[in-house]
Amino acid sequence: MNDKTTNMGLFSQDFIYKNLMGPNCLKILRELIKDIEIKPNMRILDLGCGTGLTSIYLAKNFDVTVFATDLWIKPSENYERIKQFNLEDKVYPIYANALSLPYADEFFDIVISVGAYNCFGCKSDYLQKCLLPLVKKEGLICVSVPGVKIGFDGIVPEELTPFWQENMNFYSFQWWHKLPLVPWLEAIKLLECIMTEYPNSPVYDEAIRSMNLTKRKSKCIS
Fold first, then answer.
1. 3-state secondary structure 79-137
2. I need a surface site. Which of 141, 168, 177, 184 has the fewest CB within 10 A?
3. Buried residues in 53-70 as b, exposed as e (16+ CB within 10 A)
4. Whole-angstrom Cα distance, residue 35 to residue 3?
5. Contacts of 79 (CB under 8 A, 6+ apart)
6. Residue 4: Cβ-neighbour burial (10 angstroms; 0-12, 13-18, 19+)
7. In angstroms, how far apart are the furthest CA atoms of the chain?
8. How far is it, in rounded angstroms, from Cα 156 to Cα 167?
9. String of b and e for 169-182 (b: at least 16 CB within 10 Å)?
10. Which of 6, 17, 16 shows the shortest CA–CA distance to 208?
């Protein structure tokens, strides 16, 4: 287990709440990376980094270089947060569309995406065309997406209606598991799938308490 994922004191609770864009991305990130090896000086793509919380966390705790990439938050805004933690030489805020990422082939050791992949990765050719070329051989892609326990068409479940926006792309685990991926890829190893149900999830409770939850708008690309 990655003992560094237990470092809870990096951010104040107020700082976290002010910068959340949904469920607590830090708690999700810690769960996502707990069983993988992250070595110093690795290059990590934080895809859909939002306000940069996960990027700062990774750089500070693991001494890695993070490319904090987002389409919705201005790089200058993220840079101000990065400077608060003296990480100007470890976290690079990048404005980019996930469908046309400006990076060299085999550039990254790890790609991490917390709560954003459903906005751009729902087509079967996305992984092959846009993401896999950027990852080194034997590299890792670690993704966490919001979703639903049971898929639905048309009628939004009552529990989701207060928060629902067009093109949110919330699917079930079964939907993702059946998504046709890369024809030439021999195997994609599913390490673990953890389903956390709302409303009994602390990460969703914190999102609801966050001041910013109702102020931000989704702009999902599909």
1. HHHHHHCCCCCCEEEEECCCCCCCCCCCCEEEEEEECCHHHCCCCCCHHHHHHHHHEEE
2. 184
3. bbbbbbbbbbebbbbbbb
4. 10
5. 88, 93
6. middle
7. 47
8. 12
9. bbbebeebeeeeee
10. 17
Phi first, then psi, for residue 128 (nearest 5°) are: -70, -45
pLDDT tens for 67-125 read: 999 999 999 999 999 999 999 999 999 999 999 999 999 999 999 999 999 989 888 88
DSSP-based three-state secondary structure for 70:
strand
Query: Is residue 29 a contact partner of residue 194, using CB atoms and an 8 Å limit?
Result: no
Contact 159, 198 (CB under 8 A): yes
pTM assigned to the model: 0.80
